[in-house]
Amino acid sequence: MQTEGAHKVVREVCHYNNVFDKLVEETGKKYIFAIGKEEQMMKNKEKEELQLFNDDEAAKQGLDELLNNVEDSKKNGRRNLYMLRFFLRKQKDNFALALPIGTGELEDAVFHQLRQQNEKTCVKYDVTSQNKFAYEWLPLTEVQENWNLFCNLQHGAIEMSKDVSKLSSANIVLMILEYSGKRYYIGLCQTPFDNVYKGKRLLFNDSGEIKSCVQNRYFLFMESITFIVAQIGNRMIAYIFDQAKFNKFFNYDAYIEAYANNNLSEFTRLNLVNSWEVLTQKIKKKYVYSTIYKILKDEEYLQEIKNADLVLFKKRVLENDKTKRR
What we know:
Layout: H1 2-52, H2 56-67, H3 70-76, E1 78-85, E2 95-98, H4 104-116, E3 121-124, E4 134-139, H5 144-155, E5 158-159, E6 172-179, E7 182-189, H6 193-196, E8 203-206, E9 209-212, E10 227-232, E11 235-240, H7 243-250, H8 252-262, H9 264-268, H10 276-282, H11 286-297, H12 299-307, H13 310-325
Parallel strand pairs: 2-5, 3-4
Antiparallel strand pairs: 1-2, 1-6, 4-11, 6-7, 7-10, 8-9, 10-11
């Protein structure tokens, strides 16, 4: 009896051990499945975000909520206006002034400009040309360092009433608009009033008497949007409406040139040029480094070049160039 009882205990222990092992195994499978599923979801999300940065329509949809609802955003959105002086070379003179809430005419002008953008298409940023009937987009990471400087300046803004004299040297109007759970940075770059009237005196007629204006109390307002920065998904995108001003303001050309220089060896492996020396001599010219950048950044185009008959490819490039020169 004792032996049978002992065997029974052993059998039960073994049974429960087997059940436990099986439970551990099944739980492990479920855990591994859950981890795998989570990883797959993360990959799908990354793929969707990647798709966003390769799809003009998807990028456009990121800004459509604002551009299609300008009147509602004006009525229900929260906004703050700033005047800033932002130059990368003379940063010690930079400043940010917070304008009073309810700066009616200035706000109206910004919203008016937003209404003008709705009919435009959205295309990926092209360093070699700009479409007049489109606005462009690019990942903010490409100007992240200078954007951080810009944001830090805005965060330290003082009230305009504390130093009105700085207005005349401001070179950008910035509206930060919070609407429908998103934050939009709307920038309108301009030439400082001081630069336009440097060496000149501004006069006006006051009831038949000619008087001089106090110029440091004035500023210029260019009624055209330069850029809008917004968070789309987990990424920040810069939407560019004036390429020349954006490039100058954030020194984007320096990024393009550095990228072309750093990846020059990869470009030369394409065998598109006959002389390395000539290429390195001309790399400082914008039409050279911008073209190299454009080719290297477009993976689909780059792959087509790698797969192409290079003799035929060069011939078509030359024919296309001749056509443009006519």
